[in-house]
Amino acid sequence: MSRRTGSMGDILALLSLRGWAIVVFAFIFAPIVSMAAFSFNADRFPSLPWAGFSLTWYEQVFADPMIRRGLVNSLVVALAVAPLSTAIGFLAAYVDYRFQFFGKRLYMALASLPPTVPVVIMGVAMLTFQGRIGLSGTLFGIIAAHVVISAPFAMVLIRMRLADLGTDIEAAAWNLGAGPWATLREVVIPFCAPAILASIFITAAVSFDEFMIAWFISGQNETLPVRVLALLQGQVSPRINAIGTLVFTTSMLLVILAQALTFRSKAGRR
Amino acid sequence: MTKFPVTDFRGLLPMLNRRQVLKGAAAVAGSAALGGAATKSYAQENVLNVLTWPGHGDPAFVKPFEDQYGVKVVVKEYVGGEPMLALMNQSPPGTFDVVLADAEYIGMLQESGFIDELDPADYPLADYWPEFQKFPLHWSEDKLYSVMIRFGYLGMAYRTDMLTPKDVKSYKAMWSEKVKGKVGFFDWYLPTMGCLSLYNGNKPPFDVSEDAFETLKETLFSLRPQTNGFYSMADQFAMLTNGTAGVIPGIGDWVVLLLQNEGVPVDAVVPDEGGIQWTESMSIVSSSPKKDLAKAYIQYASSPEGQFRTARLPAYWASIPNKKGWEKMIADAPEDAKKLRHTFDARNVMDEYKDGKIFIRQTPVQQDIETWNDAWSEFKAM
Amino acid sequence: MSKTHASYRADKRRFAVLIGAPSLIWQLVFFLLPLLFLVMMTFWSVRNFRLQPDFTLANWKMILNAGFFQSAYLYTFAISIFAAAVAAVAAFPVAYLISFRLAPAAQRMLIGLLVIPFFTSLPVRVYSMQIFFSPSGLINSVLAGLGLSPVTVLNTPVGALVGYLTLTIPLVILLQIFALNGVDRQLVEAAYNLRCGKFKTVISIIIPSARVGLVVSFALAFVFAFGDYISPQFLGGSNPPTLSILMADQVKSGNHWPRASVVAMTMIFTLMAMMGILLKFAYGRSAK
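ok -> structure tokens follow
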């Protein structure tokens, strides 16, 4: 970056850049802050001014069996989707990295395009299809659909890591007599381990937050985001804010924890 | 699709160095930990599956039943009769044990063989107001198929700081300058078009000739410049509260009672042209493997205790047909009985019924549901 | 060729097939098949709320000729393009600031902040926007305090736009940062040394070098806005409805999955065409 001292115009430009960035960040975080604030508001129907502090909505969230069931379903789905889609994404990434073949573009298109199809359409397609084969309304149906949209994320992450693996390393392993399977197991997978771990968490996140497809196909087995959407459409209740805040707070605590851990392990290595 | 150079996509998805990815990952693990303390899954035998309007699975109503029978009530919520029919059609047999539907859909459910005939002796119909003991839409060839649990009237709900009681004596208020751009709609063709049909003088409002239907469409379309938006069930509460909507036709007490409790300046009215009655009625699903439990659930819902509790469902309040339920409410929650006008010594909700202003909500008689629906879609997209 | 060599090659082939199969099979069965099924569904009919296999063009004719479809299509297309453009323009200064003008620590922290919205449910975020934009909400209170007339946002296209931006802006900023980080810093430094002003450098060096990423971020913003159901419903008040709302309506009213499928097909064609055009634009000129 330029080391020259900025002119007056430069300083003004930088200031207005920063000002604009503050506006944009305020826009991004305003709803999150308001969600947290109104989850403690005594009034049921959100309006200003503030009506007083209350924990009612949190009590109701913890007491609501449908919300608890939704949470359990979401967790089951996310825990199944994460390893499945990571495995599928890993294999697709490895195919892209390792092989050249006729129709590869088509193969890769199929492996990477699902997230670009609007979820409303995916939901309709999944329901009509899964309804036919008796999968709709089952947790496996949701898992199958979520793997479709999460595997591409895993593939992208792992493919980025594979790009750093020199092709000669694999060749060297073969020359030493290792078969392709052994090479995959002993060289490639360990090398990709960080990306694989990351994909497991990212795909779990994609699944845990997905509401539209699950809304169409979940039937009786509502996931948490589907319950939130149903609450949002069916009845006004700050419980929505309370759920949102709980999920958000837990996420943030773990972000901080993760950062602290990374920092510690880095410091330890020195 | 093959044209997309897929290899170039990968760098563009939103990721971040490894550290950020791990952060996000940890976040997910966190949400998982949150659930760790959550519940066991329920054995299927101990579950009663109910297909219902939103809010009816609230512990405030189902808890006593669950405790008494040692079961869990699991509800699937829908909004509007057509989604309910769709769910009944799509779900495998045995999915639902009880269905709570609006009376006008009971006939369709019965014709499609989805619901069982009921024995009137099983339910406290004798304690119901006489008008509801033999509610026509619940009976077919003198056989009972459904038991009314709640009801209410639909006219207009309005903000009292925007319109006066005099304004809302007629549906004409919706065309008033005072609420230009502030007429909201519950996004369901049936109640709104029913009220407008009454405004046009059609009695009963859902049995109209082709000509009258064309006029009804014109009446509806003429409201478009006044329109604010098309609301989900929950949005009606929010929009009346924050003043985005000044008046909403086709709704009633079920929306305003809760808002009045919170001090929002709203009221509901049945205009002079008349109003529409809605009901929520329970039936036993024919494919249910747990019909005894289903029967017990409907018995609970129609009992004084169940009636008292369902009237004041946290999602939305409603009137109840069982007089013993009224008595219980007058004894246990006299304030709420007054708000719901469930008292015997003053003018109460049954008087409007007796005035002959109230018409039962039905699906269209002379036209297809689809025809009315398409008119609604057209109206929305104008 | 020796026998071992041949069997080695057979091994390798088997290896390749086994590695390649899972993704292919899963996406064929659970992605492509449902979409093909959706195509087939457009020719089915509905009687008494029941789907019936059929081969009729009635759904296509009905939807394509319906006034409400045509207006919803034009509206959805226009507002999605507009939303993507606003998102891209609003995001760029922020992405530029983070990528070029901030210290690495601040950069990392802000990127970390931008990830947060992805862990907060979109419906809840969009719903929370209602409180800011309602007639007596925060924005109008501030405007009133300044002596300005109130603005109506809820249940208008502007409301929907607010929702679309809530959805797309964090994503667009992240993608733009990623694209800008890929710009050759030496090139930028060289431009400065040639006394090229900061603004001119952005226009003539940075944006062209990051074009692919910038266009893709725009394209994805368009894709997300075009298919979103939450924003036009909860902030736009279906006034007017978008294609995704129209789809839901067709299903709600009379279980009309075939018509909803027709709407879905028109959306998919539109998205494919748009992506094709935009990517061609992104890569086209750089291919020389």
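Residues 19 and 122 of chain B are 65 Å apart (CA to CA).
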